[in-house]
Amino acid sequence: MRSGSRDPQVGGKALTNPTTLNQLFFEAVDQLSERPVALRGKVGGVWVEQSFREFQDNVQALSLALTGLGVVPGSHVALLSENRPEWAITDYACLTARCADVPIYPTLPATQIEYILNDSGAVAIMVSTEEQLAKVLEIRDRLPALKVVIAFDRGLEGHGVLGYLDVIARGRAAMSPEATAAWRRQALEVTPDDLATLIYTSGTTGHPKGVMLTHGNIASNVVSGLKALDLRESDECLSFLPLSHIFERMAGHYCMLGAGAVITYAERVETVSQDMIDRRPTVMLSVPRLYEKIYARVLETALTGSGAKRRIFFWAKRTAERWVELSLGGQHVPRALALKKAVADRLVFSKLRARTGGRLRFFVSGGAPLSADIAKFFYAAGLPILEGYGLTETSPVIAVNTFRHIRLGTVGRPIEGVEVRIAPDGEILTRGPHVMKGYYQNPEATAEVLEPDGWFHTGDIGELDADGYLKITDRKKDLIVTSGGKNIAPQPIENLLKTNRFILNAVMLGDGRKFPIMLVVPELAALSAWATDQGLSFTDPAGLAASQQAAAKLEGEVKKSLRDLAKFEVPKKLLVVPDDFTIEDGLLTPTLKVKRRAVAERYAEEIEAVYAEPPGGVHDIDAR
Q: How far apart, in whole angstroms, are the C-alpha atoms of residue 570 and residue 563?
């Protein structure tokens, strides 16, 4: 099944369906060599740009330098860095040197980095900052395979550490017409079956597994992705999701090069809001957490405004969402509704678009399920979110909504070349050129998910509708089966709560228990404003969150948000958790997904107390 497609183009010419990432690279830079901006990043508080010609020269210089440092074809080179131009240059330098790179999340501690470096046998590592270098130096004497350490930031060289600019200079010294021709020829000898990268999944238990993705795996996904998505040479992408994750890497890195778009690297995750205003991107990729936060902020602003502003906002929201229902449903939009939508757009939604820079054509969402209500709101606001689905093991895209074929509440249709079927137990299976080669040095784990005929078990539960749109229900391992035998998918229920302005985060637990409970992180700003309106006294927001009045308010909000669920799906008790989950406290993955098991372990004592409480206790949602 296909989402509708067009032939991808770059520099005004159609791509020749490259079968390796090196073919993609050379074809793109050849056609874009005269373009003034390829990459943009902040250095010392100032935006610094690289042209496509400079980008290609830096890739070649680093590639030749790595070879000169003894990094041979087939070697593994680790990359420990935040998103920045050097990340992109290093990746293509490794690919053209016929190496496989091993991206590592910069949020990981030294102990986990040590495992990845030893398991992968990395012979070299590129690090970004003094903080990342310190992690490597801490464990270096326990890394027998590691021979070369290169630091991006200036002033870190010495004591067995090479400076990035010095290494680039070495490569430039080796450049000549003959060397360039040989480098290009050898790079293009890579085959689709050759390993391109080794990505370690951020598992919640045990050691992470190294996912082996080949040139053919990723290149096939890029070609199909470019056919599905409406990317243009005039686009500018703001990159802030970790490039260590295959979602940002495939769509925000390889696809952007293939489309000839400019990539701007956000300074930090915390600066994304300002970076959007400064750089005015046309395309952005994110996980649902960003959209949930934007939605909650907009809702809070509306609800705390004057009565007139509240009425205008909710009238605009209803009007625009009705317009979305008719438009996407292929139905006639009455002229009166179209005029009302135009007024709503001018009065309300234009302000939201201005906060994204005013040029954003669309978002892409992946990594976790997106609430259909949030998707509808953004579409109504003229900021469509194209939700997709995939895994690291599938390079990653399996399906995606497109402008030609979109159905909110689904992850779209499978992209070109990708097969999908639903197993008898509801698990989503996929087969095609996008499926990984296997887990590195782990044939047992590979055999558990990859059948001999090529079908990969995703671990997700879902369904295909009559028109071929895929809907994700939940992770198979996350399904809650109560002791009474009821099956509950927690993610859709949690998503309902995340659209409530008083709730920042929510995690449902209860597998093997008599009933499910909900852990809720309150939105303290909204809760504090409510308490002030109610005349409640409190010393600080955290203290308010622990109060009985706040618990009663949150219980009421939970019941309101979940009023349309079946009785067995509604959590029976509520546990208020004052602090949001973070990567640093080990409760979020680097791509901002909640580690359900880690949350259960962190709050084990409080959870046991809730379950031990008799009916009608303080945590009982129906007690008030």
A: 8
**What does the block give as tokens for 201?**
């999944």
pLDDT bucket at 1, cuts 50 / 70 / 90: very low
Following CA atoms 106, 112, 114, 117 in sequence, which dihedral angle do they give, to the nearest 10 degrees?
Answer: -70
Amino acid at 373: D
Torsion of the alpha carbons at 338, 342, 344 and 345, rounded to the nearest 10: 130
Quick one: tokens of 398?
């399996």
Distance of CA 299 to the CA centre of its chain: 24
Closest C-alpha among 615, 501, 488, 494 to residue 554: 501
| Token duo for residue 439 | 């887990």
What is the pTM (predicted TM-score) of this model? 0.87
- What separation in angstroms does the CA of 438 have from each of 199, 287, 433, 435, 454? 11, 25, 13, 8, 11
Instruction: Give the burial string for 409-439 (b: 16+ CB within 10 Å, else e).
Output: bbbbbbbbebbbeeeeebebbbbbbbbbbbb
> Has residue 85 got a pLDDT over 50?
yes
∠ CA 235-239-240, rounded to 5°: 155
- Considering only CA atoms, which of 466, 472, 476 is closest in space to residue 398? 472
d(CA 224, CA 486): 40
Structure tokens at 334: 């009455």
pLDDT of residue 2: 36
User: Which ranges of 213-271 would DSSP assign to H, the alpha helix?
Assistant: 215-228, 246-249, 255-259
- Mean pLDDT for the stretch of residues 395-408: 97
Q: pLDDT tens-digit profile of 164-174?
A: 999 999 999 99
Task: Give the tens place of pLDDT for each residue, 46-72.
Answer: 999 999 999 999 999 999 999 999 999
CA distances from 322 to 80, 353, 370, 499 (A): 47, 19, 20, 18
Q: Is 167 exposed, middle or buried (0-12, 13-18, 19+ CB in 10 A)?
A: buried
102-140: buried (b, 16+ CB within 10 Å) or exposed (e) per residue?
bbbbbbbeeebbbebbebbbbbbbbbbbeebbebbbebe
DSSP 58-102: HHHHHHHHHHHTT--TT-EEEEE--SSHHHHHHHHHHHHTT-EEE
SS3 category, 135: helix
Q: Residue 403: in which H helix or E strand, if any? A: none
Backbone angles phi, psi at 449, to 5 degrees: -115, -15
26-48 pLDDT tens trace: 999 999 999 999 999 999 899 99
Q: In this structure, how many other beta carbons lie within 10 angstroms of the beta carbon of residue 94?
A: 27
- Written as one letter, the residue type at 384 is P
Residue type, 496: L
* CA separation for the pair 39, 30 (Å, rounded): 16
Report the run of H or E that residue 479 belongs to, with start and end. Answer: none
How far is 341 from 201, CA to CA, in rounded Å? Answer: 44
Distance between CA atoms of residues 532 and 530, nearest Å: 5
Q: Which single residue is written with the structure tokens 């027998």?
A: 144
H or E element in which residue 109 lies: none
User: How many whole angstroms separate alpha carbon 555 and alpha carbon 619?
Assistant: 9
CA 586 to chain centroid, in Å, comes to 17
Instruction: Report the C-alpha gap between 307 and 315 in whole angstroms.
Output: 12
